[in-house]
Amino acid sequence: MSELTSESIPTTSISHANLTHFTTAFPTLQSTLTTSPTLLSQSFSSIFSSTTASWEYAHDLSREARGLEKGGGGGESALGYGEILPETVFEVMEVIRKEHGVVYDLGSGSGRVLFASCLSHPFTSAYGLEYLPTLHENALHNLSLWRKKELETFCSSTPPLISFNFTNADISKIPNFKLTPNPTLLICHATLFDNDLFACVQLISENCEIGTTFIMVTKELRTGGVTGIETLGRKQWEMSWGWATIYIQRRV
């Protein structure tokens, strides 16, 4: 398995016209044809600057929902909360260079990973599935902040650039383990997923259409002729809680 580089991933270019239209939604990116991590971080911070939009707030919501006292001890579970840092999302998205299409996050928490993905690339729609109701509600709150930033630069009659769809759902109960619409990109921070939950992720991935790309944190999907999945590369990237291996995989 190779170390992940931009050269190791099949790419499609993003047209300057589309990128220019997308970046005008946020002042820090206006008239920018390249999206550097620094500019993206500034834009992300300008949207989600409130305490209730922070990673720490989502982490505390998760602990409270699981019956753990804020700041206290206690064992982790498959529902434990960790997050890919926005800066890491920007770097990964630059490597895979996906254009348009549909992005999913299984275990989407507060939605911040989806927002970072859509800030760095112009997906047409984004879907987040989260089991804990409080985290789902926090994602909806963060969506309102995203929409507010859009309204600061567009008139109210302008349709949203990206359709966000957050669902309070159990991924183990997705009918036939089939996502509709099919993902262009599927993200899963699976560090604390137990074997049963990750088996569901495996089935969902195997049911995706050929060409779907997967970003898997810590746990790697099974590959081979039976699964129809291959690994393109891997690399260590920073998470909210430390460093982890991110696997870039594809349905073939």
UniProtKB/TrEMBL annotation:
InterPro entries the record matches: DOT1_dom, SAM-dependent_MTases_sf
GO MF, any single term: histone H3K79 methyltransferase activity
Superkingdom, natural source: Eukaryota
Every DOT1 domain range: 77-224
Protein name: DOT1 domain-containing protein
Organism in which the protein naturally occurs: Triparma laevis f. longispina
Origin organism lineage: Eukaryota, Sar, Stramenopiles, Ochrophyta, Bolidophyceae
